[in-house]
Amino acid sequence: MKTRLLLAAVLAAAPMPAMAQGAPVHVLLITGLGGEPAYSKSFHEAAGSIYDAAVKWGVPDSSRIWLAEDPARDRTRIRGRAAKETVAAGFATLAQRAKPGDVVLVVLIGHGSGQARESKVNLSGPDPEAWEYEQWLRPFLRSTVVFVNGASASGDFLPILAGPGRIIITSTRSSTERNESVFYSWFAKGLATADADADKDGRISVLEAFSYARTEVRRAYESDSRLLTEHAQLDDDGDGKGAADPAGAESVDGALSRQVAFGGAPASTNPRIVALLAERRALEADVAALRGRRAMTDSTAYGRELERLLLLIAEKTAAIRVIERGGPP
C-alpha cells in the first residue's frame, strides 16, 4: 500500500503537458561524424529508421529535418550537413512550426565528449555545446520536447537541458562513460517497430522505447561477455536528475514519458482487446481530469482517487496481456 501511495503522489506531482492524443509531431535528427565507415553506417541506419517511422506517424515533410555527416548519402531524406549553423537553423524552423501542445522530437547520434555545459557531439566544423542546445530549446516553452542524446559521454547533457515539459534521455549517466554507445540503435528500433509496444496499444511511448532499449543494451553486453559501460538515463520531471529505471514504482520520473507516444491505431483486431484499450484510455482521461482538479481537491481524497484509477489502469493492462496469451476473454 505504501508503494502504491508513493507512486500516486509521484505521478500527481509530475507536470503534464497540454497535449491531446495524437498531437502533431515535429522531428529533428542529427547524426554526427562517424570517424570510421562502420560508425557512419550505424548512425545513418538508426536515424533513417526513425525518419521512416516519422513518415508512418504522419509527420509532414516540412516537420521532418535530418541533418547528417554526408547529405549526398541520401539526398531524398537528408536535409543538409550536420553543422552548428544548420542545427541552429533546424531548431529555428521547428520553433516556427510547433504550436502549444505539439511534440518536438530531437535525436542526436554520434561521438560525444566534454564535460558539463561544454559537453558536445562531434559535427562538421565547430561543435555546439550542451548550453547551446539548451538555448535552442527555449522557444519550445509550450511544446513537449523529447530530446535524446544517443552519443557516447552524453550524460552531462541531462542536467543542462532538463526542464518542465521536457523529456531528456542520454545513453550514458555521465561524460566519463566514453566507450561507443549502442543505446541509440536500440532506441531507434524501439521507436520504429512494435517490439517496444509493451501494452500493445499500437503506439510506442517514450518510456516504452527507453525501457526496451535499456533492456536490449544490457542483453547485448551480456551476450558479448562485456562489462556494461553505458547506463542510459531519463528525466521527465524537470529536476535534472536522471533515472535509470523510470518505469519502476519508486521512480520520480516516468509520468510524462509514459504519456507521450508515437504511432497509430491499436495493433489488435480482437474486439475484447479493443474494448479494454478504450476503457483504459477513458481511465487515463479521468487521471488527467483529476490532476486538473488537484488544487481544489482535498489531498487525502486526491491521493485515494488517483491510486484507484491507477490500479484500474493496471488491471486493464493485465487483462489485455492475459487475452493475448490465449487466456479467457
Task: Sum this structure up briefly.
This protein is α/β, with parallel strands linked by helices and 329 residues long.
Structural features, described:
The chain has 329 residues and is of the alpha/beta class. The chain folds into two domains: 25-263, Rossmann fold (3-Layer(aba) Sandwich); 268-324. The chain contains ten helices and eleven strands. The protein has helices at 2-13, 37-56, 84-97, 130-137, 157-161, 183-192, 206-223, 255-259, 271-292, 299-324, and strands spanning 25-31, 64-68, 80-81, 103-109, 112-113, 120-121, 144-149, 166-170, 203-205, 233-235, 261-263. It starts with a helix and ends in a 5-residue tail after the last helix.
Could you outline the blueprint of secondary structure elements for this entry?
Blueprint: H1 2-13, E1 25-31, H2 37-56, E2 64-68, E3 80-81, H3 84-97, E4 103-109, E5 112-113, E6 120-121, H4 130-137, E7 144-149, H5 157-161, E8 166-170, H6 183-192, E9 203-205, H7 206-223, E10 233-235, H8 255-259, E11 261-263, H9 271-292, H10 299-324
Parallel strand pairs: 1-2, 1-4, 2-3, 4-7, 7-8
Antiparallel strand pairs: 5-6, 8-10, 9-11
Tally of helical runs: 10
CATH topology of the largest domain: Rossmann fold
Distance separating the two termini: 29 Å
Q: What is the molecular shape?
A: globular
Mean pLDDT: 87
Order of helices and strands: HEHEEHEEEHEHEHEHEHEHH
Outline the biggest β-sheet.
Answer: 7 strands, mixed
Spans where pLDDT lies below 50 across 5 or more residues: 1-21
Strand order of the largest sheet: 3-2-1-4-7-8-10
CATH class of the largest domain, anyone?
Answer: Alpha Beta
**Share in helix:** 40-55%
Total strands: the figure is: 11
User: Cα-atom Rg, whole angstroms?
Assistant: 20 Å
Domains (count): 2
SS class: alpha/beta
Strand content range: 5-15%
Oligomer: single chain
User: Which CATH architecture of the largest domain?
Assistant: 3-Layer(aba) Sandwich
